[in-house]
Structures are given as C-alpha cells and as structure tokens.
Amino acid sequence: MEWKELQSQCMACTRCGLCQTRHHVVFGVGNPDADVMFIGEGPGEQEDLRGEPFVGPAGMLLDDMLSIIDLDRKTNCYIANIVKCRPPHNRDPEEAEQEACIGYLRSQVALVNPKIIVCLGRIAAKRLIDRDFRITRQHGQWIQKDGIWMMAIYHPSALLRDVGKRPETFDDLISLREKIRQLGARV
Ligand code: URA
Fold first, then answer.
1. H or E, element range at 30
2. Mutate which of 120, 122, 154, 161 to test ligand 1's pocket (most atoms within 8 Å of Cβ)?
3. What is the model's pTM?
4. Per the domain annotation, does 185 fall within a domain?
5. What CATH number corresponds to the domain at position 123?
6. How remote is the CA of residue 54 from the centroid of ligand 1, in Å?
7. How many alpha carbons fall within 13 Å on the CB side of residue 147?
8. Does any ligand 1 atom lie closer than 6 A to the CB of residue 87?
9. Number of domains the chain is built from
C-alpha cells in the first residue's frame, strides 16, 4: 500500500471506539525514508488537538533527547504510535484498541523500512518486542527481529515524572548512537 492511501484510510478509521472521542487522528511525523523509527503508545491531549505525535510536554523532552544524538523529528527519523487516536484521560490503550490499530503501524514500518526501531515505554515494547517485556530491567537491550534492530527506552512521560531515570536513558541514547554508527544508518 502507498503512503497516501494508508494515511487516508487511517484518517477515516472507525475500527475502534476511540474514533468517537478523537479530535484528530495522529498518524505520524518525520522522514518516510528514515533508518530510525520511534514508536510511542498513543496520542495525549496536545497530540489529539494538533494531529502530530509528541507535541506536548513529553514531546518537548523527546525532542531534547533526540537532539543529544543529532536526531530531529522532521529530517532523519520517523515517529508514530501504537494507537493513532487518544485514549480518554490518557489511559493505557486497551488490547482491542491496539489490535484494531496495529495494522496501520505495521504498514508504516513496511513503508519506512527502518534499520532501527526504538520503543518509547512499556506499552510499545510489550506490543512490538515481547509480551513479557519489563521496561525497568530490559530498557537499552538490543534484539533483532525480522531484520530490524529494536530496543526500548523509558517513555519521556516517565522521565518527566522521575528524573532519576534520566541517566540510564542517556546511556541508552548513547547506545542508540553507537548502533546507528555500526549499521551505517543514515542520519
Ligand atoms: N505519548 C505517546 O506515547 N505518544 C504521543 O504521541 C504523545 C505522548
């Protein structure tokens, strides 16, 4: 499927109940040819209002984290979420909502064809890396799945709540920079 078709299908989606309360579908942002993809959980309030992922407080922190390793949301990475519509009151997206939405993300991954996927937080890691993923124990660990290198880092919202987790995340970002270099990924 092509980008335009995928995006217009997603924009008109009514596959789960989240479509009833959304203001915008939050499809994704970035370079569709990027070698590095970041996957969050789902839109929050600001994202729902503006139609772009990670534009609220957590997103501002994410932009700072990316800039540490010379990444930028518009030019050299692609950012999307597991679910494209905001769960009310920012609750975790339900299993059925994730299931209804995951096909869009799979198509995005197929089109971007990244060398590296970084899961932002527990929900994305559980969905994409391992059902039993434990973010406290397994963040920063690399695995290769279907030819794509994957790891998870703490969600930027968790880093806003608990600054004590930031040094570990800094190490994970340095590890990401190393992986980008090792693979000769375009940034
Ligand atoms: N949190 C997410 O997981 N995704 C967003 O787009 C914003 C906040």
1. strand 29-30
2. 120
3. 0.98
4. no
5. 3.40.470.10
6. 5
7. 5
8. no
9. 1
